[in-house]
Amino acid sequence: MLIEYVAAERKDGHLTRKWFGDSYFDLYCWLDDKGSIHKFQLCYDKSHDEHALTWIQPSTYYHQRVDDGENRPGKSKASPVLIPDGMFDFHTVAERFLRESKQINHEIAQFVHMKLLEFGKR
User: Has this prediction a pTM greater than 0.85?
Assistant: First the structure.
């Protein structure tokens, strides 16, 4: 079940960043002073095959895989990076997000869920 990491909230210029997470998801949201979301990034399947869906207003989306930097035989671990990955099972992710987001801010959860479905219909 997603929880908000209140200690992680911080100001990025004129936007406030909030972080919600659990063992499967990390959700980062950038909100203005009125609480409107300007950007979010939903990372999912963190322990198996992590991916990230990023939405930036008004309607820009990126779906990427997280390369954790571990698979480098004979070399030190590298920093994780996002790389293009078009495959996105939006139904499964949206359903799980809806179940797991019941304890966080309702408006944020509904907005992110709506954008997940919107991306899937593109």
Answer: yes
Among candidates 17, 80, 13, which has minimal Cα distance to 5? Answer: 17
Specify the DSSP class assigned to residue 117: H
Confidence (pLDDT) at 74: 64
Nearest to 40, CA basis, from 68, 66, 65, 59: 59
Query: 25 with 35: CB under 8 angstroms?
Result: no
**pLDDT tens digits for 21-65?**
999 999 999 999 899 999 999 999 999 999 999 999 999 999 999
Residue 113 phi/psi, 5-degree rounding, is -60, -45
Please confirm whether the linkage preceding 58 is cis (ω < 30° from 0): yes
Q: Closest by alpha carbon to 42, among 60, 29, 57, 58?
A: 29
Indicate the SS3 state at residue 97: helix
